[in-house]
């Protein structure tokens, strides 16, 4: 919520024409608290009367452009990268459409009010009463996005939970809640939301993978079953291969971990976070199946890139001590 400066002129009681470098807009309300429509869509604003300074919060589709970014963060409690394209949390289409349409009707009502204060005022009041819940939900999403972009994932999840209390059946909301709690390092809170989401959309493979990540720490067998239920093409993706290998290691089946992990890019020369995790778990799997030379090859590559990665230094010491013997 930024601090801005603008000039405005009264067109009628409670109605103002607002002038800024972005363009023209119309707003209605009282001093210090107004609702309006401008070049970037519908908004609410609050300020200090007489100073010209105020805060503004855009609603619906007209706010700041959504910035997409791919997270390469690690799943809570592990070195596994989560293959999630995390954008600013998307406002559900039905809310964006309704709040945008409501903002347009407010603009029409404000223009009508200039010519007929009675009927224009009645129309404005009806529009605000009808669309106010949508504006509230849109505003909560904006707050969740600000928290998300700042890395305050718990706060973002709390805002989304407030949306869920107001609109419990909102499509895709459970998935976003699962994602927010997972990013906050709370897999136990994320899992029930993913489960609810999958009850409605069982073919959402992103949610199935993320739920497997949540299960991995305490319920490796359930996590493995989820991954094995993915379609063949999804099981060929590197994050899925890494997690399946790690789970077989947790279940004390290193020979199966080797079988799965060797489907990955063993010969690649690039080294990013996903490849570090892949080589680390492949090295552990080789070590636990007695293939020490192969284990040394993989773990040395990890160590050369990041000597503090997980417990690679200890694993290497053990192997190199045995090699010396």
General description of the model:
With 325 residues, this protein is an alpha+beta fold. It contains 13 helices and 7 strands. It has a 7-stranded antiparallel sheet, with helices on one face. Helix 5 packs antiparallel against helix 6, helix 11 runs antiparallel to helix 12 and helix 12 packs across helix 13. The protein is elongated and about 90 Å long. Mean pLDDT is 79; it is low at 61-85.
Number of strands: 7
| CATH architecture title of the largest domain | Alpha Horseshoe
Strands across the major sheet, in which order? 1-7-6-5-4-3-2
Mean pLDDT: 79
CATH fold node name of the largest domain: Serine Threonine Protein Phosphatase 5, Tetratricopeptide repeat
CATH superfamily of the largest domain: Tetratricopeptide repeat domain
Distance between the termini: 64 Å
Would you state the CATH class of the largest domain?
A: Mainly Alpha
Q: Tell me roughly what share of residues is in helical segments.
A: 55-70%
Alpha plus pi helix count: 13
Radius of gyration, taken over Cα atoms and rounded to an integer in Å = 27 Å
**Largest β-sheet summary:** 7 strands, antiparallel
């Amino acid at each position: 919520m930024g601090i801005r400066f603008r000039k405005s002129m009264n067109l009628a009681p409670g109605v103002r024409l607002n002038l800024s470098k972005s363009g023209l807009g119309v707003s209605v309300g009282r001093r210090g608290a107004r609702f309006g429509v401008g070049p970037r869509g519908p908004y609410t604003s609050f300020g200090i009367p007489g100073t010209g300074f105020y805060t503004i919060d855009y609603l619906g589709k007209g706010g700041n452009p959504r910035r997409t970014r791919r997270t390469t963060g690690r799943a809570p409690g592990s070195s596994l990268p989560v293959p999630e394209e995390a954008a600013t949390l998307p406002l559900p289409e039905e809310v964006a459409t309704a709040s945008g349409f409501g903002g347009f009707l407010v603009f029409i009502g404000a223009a009508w009010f200039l010519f007929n204060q009675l009927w224009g005022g009645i129309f404005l009041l009806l529009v605000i009463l009808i669309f106010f819940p949508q504006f509230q939900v849109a505003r909560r999403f904006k707050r969740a996005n600000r928290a998300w972009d700042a890395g305050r994932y718990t706060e973002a999840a709390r805002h989304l939970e407030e949306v869920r209390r107001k609109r419990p059946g909102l499509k895709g909301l459970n998935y976003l809640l699962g994602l927010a709690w997972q990013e906050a390092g709370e897999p136990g809170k994320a899992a029930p939301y993913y489960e609810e989401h999958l009850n409605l959309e069982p073919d959402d493979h992103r949610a199935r993978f993320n739920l497997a990540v949540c299960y991995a720490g305490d319920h490796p067998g359930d996590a493995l079953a989820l991954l094995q239920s993915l379609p063949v093409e999804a099981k060929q993706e590197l994050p899925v291969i890494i997690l399946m290998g790690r789970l077989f290691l947790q279940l004390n089946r290193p020979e199966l971990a080797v079988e799965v992990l060797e489907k990955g890019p063993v010969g690649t020369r690039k080294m990013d976070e996903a490849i570090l995790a892949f080589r680390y778990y492949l090295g552990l799997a080789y070590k636990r199946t007695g293939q020490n030379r192969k284990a040394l090859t993989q773990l040395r590559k990890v160590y050369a890139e990041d000597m503090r990665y997980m417990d690679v230094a200890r694993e290497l010491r053990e192997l190199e001590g045995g090699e010396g013997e």
